[in-house]
Specification:
The complex is a heterodimer of chains A (459) and B (337). Chain A is mainly alpha-helical and 459 residues long. Chain A has one domain (6-262, 303-445). Chain A is 68% helix and 5% strand. Chain A contains 14 helices and six strands. In chain A, the strands form three sheets. In chain A, strands 1-2 form a two-stranded antiparallel sheet. Chain A has a two-stranded antiparallel ribbon with strand order 3-4. Chain A has a two-stranded antiparallel sheet with strand order 5-6. In chain B, α1 (3-37) packs across α7 (161-188), α8 crosses α9 (225-233) and α9 packs across α11 (258-280). The longest helix of chain B has 35 residues, at 3-37. Chain B has one domain. Chain B has helices at 3-37, 41-73, 75-84, 86-109, 114-137, 154-159, 161-188, 192-223, 225-233, 235-253, 258-280, 298-326, 330-333; strands at residues 143-146, 149-152, 283-285, 289-290. In chain B, the strands form two sheets. Chain B has a two-stranded antiparallel sheet with strand order 1-2. Classes of the chains: A mainly alpha (459), B mainly alpha (337). Chains A and B meet through α2, α3 and α13 of A and α2, α3, α4 and α12 of B. Chain A: Keywords: Cell membrane, Electron transport, Heme, Iron, Membrane, Metal-binding, Transmembrane, Transmembrane helix, Transport. Chain A: The chain crosses the membrane at residues 12-40, 61-82, 94-117, 129-149, 184-207, 219-238, 317-342, 362-383, 410-430. Chain A: This is Cytochrome d ubiquinol oxidase subunit I. Chain A: Belongs to the cytochrome ubiquinol oxidase subunit 1 family. Chain A: Pfam families: Cyt_bd_oxida_I.
């Protein structure tokens, strides 16, 4: 198909592994928090529906964790196998956060095992709830440490290069680089947002299919309120990310926005296509918006692509991924806000009479599930391709980091096959797990009444 | 002790941890499948599942820990081993991926799937085989380093009696370690039928284990004479290992003190593994890379060691909690919780 080029094949294989891993990793970071909230609500309100929710989510979560763990192991090994030169350099500078990530992972793994097998073991429910906290901390800390590694690749610092040799390494400076705050907060909050939407999607789907059980309504309400909070936070952090790019990686921002000329009062370009001679067509232009995004004021000067030598520019198609990500983020915020407003029974809320469980609303939520996962993919593609041709921004190019081995192409096909099999089996197993054991059966088996303490919100 | 030595000791300890927990896990998977295939599942299934379920995830972490640790402490290993081991490394990843996920699929999802437990059992024996390649390669003679090109000599690797005997040693050791642990676990659970079967497995696998240990030792003299002589210099370590092995088998044979017997098995492997490791020093990859020239810069080394000590403060109590709840809690082991 292509001429054999270990760099190209290494890039594709790394994407395939990470693209697959990030589906499970995102859930791995986000779902524990949702489980913790559900279990907490169950204890606080004395409502066994929420406790069961936590229990059922945890059961499905195990499957996604398993795939997350094995693909995470895969990427850890692959980094050394596919990017030996890069890892040699990285080991000297960012060995610390990588090492700490495995500690966080260790911590989480231990407590996940304990949590899953002690549901009925302690008399006090609070004790069992406390076990989920190290899982939430471990999951989020993993994201924290590993994202700081990625931040380093975008904004390398904390070392000097003298005649090609790394000196004066400061591990903490490398870890807490300029990109770290915005990257980490953006990654963590979008993991939470995506997990909330995926779980909300399941509840909405059940109600849409005619299931009237109050359990699903509670699940939907809880996930959508959480999603709204996370969506607002995502938007705020997204804005800070724009300002970070403007300051430190202007060529990435310019590529995302097809911004060629350095100018003040720069417009934001939505959609559109780029012709061969770099003319933007069919796009919606919002005047001043890019300057405001970059610096907070319309007179901020935004550096354009023309300032850079051509071989240091990222591919311009990242614009589509950037736009898709932003669009989906807006969509998720709007949908969760609408649902929460409709469902908010406050006298002064003019929308309180509207029914949030109407089928169009539920369909929008169901759609939000897969869309949120696509946004994660698009965002990562934008962030990673947007820093090409660098593997370490302004230090090492991707080509310099790659392996020289002869067999990356065969490995690529084998791994694609592996992930296809894993993906399909996890889908089938999860489906079987929940179809064969619907909520109604489990409630009955555990002797939980249909209506518990909370008044049913009738549609 | 220099930072280099401290670093490699920490890593070697974690690799040893992986060797023990992974062996129990890999062997348990194999016995679990084997007992299904021979209609003995009802005898040992519960013992295997009750132990494995809460700890399956932890096993993997030991490996990742070692891997990331060695890149942190000795970044040059990433360059040498990473380039040379693309294929064996990828095969190991695939096996680990199949095993890890199909364990979860078969335990939490499709409980009665024969195929899932076959995949789980079979990969458990292939993974140790694929991972030993790294140990074999580190002895030297299987890799050519020519300017910027590093290549693994597949013909040399597959054609050498030494590398095959290491593979066999790994597999029989997995089955032996695992059976001796599960025997102890079954004894704690007062499950006599499982105990008898597992005891039989332990004794069956003890002989090939010790024979292969001796075979590998003898073949080593042809493979890497420096390593062999270094090992002879500290011969007493291997004598301790052998005595621990004999004592363990005798105890199990006499149906006495299974806990002590398993501890002796751990001592047997601990001494052999560390004796082998010490004899290998200072080389990480003979003769291209030593722990001194491949070591990271000093500030990273200090940071890693601090992180490591801090991490242990977190890990040791957590691991203790895990063991107390699932391993040393008689009620849980016996299936009352």
């Amino acid at each position: 198909m292509f001429e054999y080029d270990p760099v190209l094949f290494s890039r594709i294989l790394t994407y395939v592994t990470l693209g697959f891993h990030v589906i499970f990793a995102t859930l791995g970071v986000g779902v524990p928090l949702m489980i913790a909230i559900a279990e907490w609500m169950g204890i606080k309100r004395g409502d066994p529906h929420y406790t069961l929710m936590a229990r059922r989510w945890a059961r499905g979560f195990v499957i996604t964790v398993a795939v997350g763990v094995v693909t995470g192991t895969a990427i850890a090994l692959q980094l050394a196998l596919l990017w030996p030169n890069f890892m040699q350099a990285a080991g000297h500078t960012i060995g610390l956060p990588m090492f700490m990530e495995t500690f966080a992972f260790f911590f989480e793994a231990i407590f996940l095992g304990i949590y899953l097998y002690t549901w009925d073991r302690f008399k006090s429910k609070m004790k069992h709830f406390l076990l989920v906290i190290p899982i939430v901390i471990g999951a989020t800390a993993s994201a924290f440490f590993i994202t700081s590694v990625n931040s380093f690749m975008n904004a390398p610092q904390g070392f000097n290069i003298v005649d090609g040799v790394l000196t004066d390494v400061s591990p903490l400076a490398a870890m807490f680089n300029a990109a770290t705050p915005t990257k980490i907060s953006h990654v963590i909050i979008t993991c939470y947002l995506t997990a909330a939407f995926i779980l909300g999607m399941i509840a909405a789907y059940k109600i849409l299919r005619g299931n009237k059980h109050v359990y699903h309504k509670k699940a939907l309400h809880m996930t959508m309120v959480s999603a709204l909070v996370f969506a607002v936070a995502t938007a705020a952090i997204g804005d800070l990310s724009g300002k970070y790019l403007h300051e430190y990686q202007p060529e990435k921002l310019a590529a995302a926005e097809w911004h060629f000329e350095t100018e003040t009062e720069a417009p934001l370009i939505l959609g559109g296509i780029l012709t061969e001679d770099n003319e933007v067509e069919y796009a919606l232009e919002i005047p001043f918006a890019l300057s405001i995004l970059a610096g907070g004021t319309p007179d901020t000067e935004v550096i354009g692509l023309n300032e850079y030598p051509e071989d240091e520019l990222p591919p311009l198609w990242v614009h589509y991924f950037f736009d898709a990500m932003v669009f989906i983020g807006m969509y998720l915020a709007a949908v969760s806000a609408l649902f929460v407003l409709f469902n908010w029974q406050n006298r002064r809320n003019p929308l309180r009479k509207l029914n949030p469980f109407k089928s169009w609303m539920l369909r929008l939520i169901v759609l939000g599930g897969p869309l949120s996962m696509f946004a994660i993919q698009f965002g990562w593609i934008f962030a990673e391709v947007g820093r090409q041709p660098w593997i370490l921004h302004s230090v090492m190019t991707t080509a310099e980091g790659a392996t020289t081995s002869d067999h990356v192409d065969i490995m690529l096909w084998i791994f694609i096959l592996l992930y296809a099999v894993l993906g399909v089996t996890s889908y089938l197993v999860l489906r079987k797990m929940f179809l064969h054991n619907p909520v109604e059966h489990e409630l009955e088996r555990r002797g939980i009444p249909y209506h518990t303490v909370e008044k049913d919100v009738e549609s | 002790m220099t930072y280099e030595l401290l670093g490699i000791t920490v890593l070697w300890t974690f690799l040893f941890g992986y060797l023990i927990v992974a062996s129990i896990d890999f062997g348990a998977g194999f016995y679990s499948y084997y007992s299904k295939a021979t209609n003995k599942a009802h005898i040992i299934h519960n013992i295997v599942q009750r132990y494995l379920s809460p700890v399956w995830e932890v096993t993997n972490v030991f490996l990742v820990f070692f891997l990331i640790g060695i890149i942190g402490f000795f970044p040059d290993t990433a360059y040498y081993y990473g380039t040379a081991l693309l294929i064996p490394g990828s095969i190991a990843i695939i096996l680990l991926a199949i095993r890890g996920s199909y364990y979860a699929f078969s335990t939490y999802g499709a409980k009665d799937s024969h195929f899932f437990s076959f995949l789980y059992g079979a990969t458990g024996l292939l993974i140790p085989a694929s991972l030993t390649v790294v140990l074999t390669v580190s002895l030297g003679g299987y890799i050519v380093v020519d300017n910027d090109q590093i290549q693994l000599l597949y013909g040399e690797l597959f054609g050498s009696a030494y590398s095959w005997s290491v593979v066999i040693l790994a597999i029989v050791s997995v089955l032996f370690i695992s059976a001796s642990f599960l025997t102890y676990y079954a004894a704690r659970a007062n499950d006599n039928r499982a105990l008898e079967l597992l005891r039989k497995y332990t004794i069956t696998w003890s002989f090939p284990t010790i024979i292969m240990g001796i075979v590998v030792f003898l073949l080593l003299s042809k493979r890497n004479i420096t390593q062999f002589e270094n090992m002879l210099d500290i011969g007493w370590v291997f004598a301790v290992s052998f005595i621990a092995f004999v004592a363990a088998v005798v105890l199990i044979w006499k149906r006495q003190r299974y806990g002590t017997a398993f501890t002796l098995v751990v001592i047997q492997y601990f001494t052999a593994f560390f004796g082998y490791g010490v004899a290998h020093l200072p080389y990480l990859l003979y003769p291209h890379l030593t722990i001194y020239d491949g070591f990271t810069n000093e500030s990273m080394a200090i940071a890693l060691i601090i992180a490591f000590v801090a991490g242990l403060f977190l890990l040791i109590p957590s691991l203790y909690l895990l063991l107390r709840l699932f391993l040393f809690d008689a009620d849980y082991v016996q299936g009352n919780k």
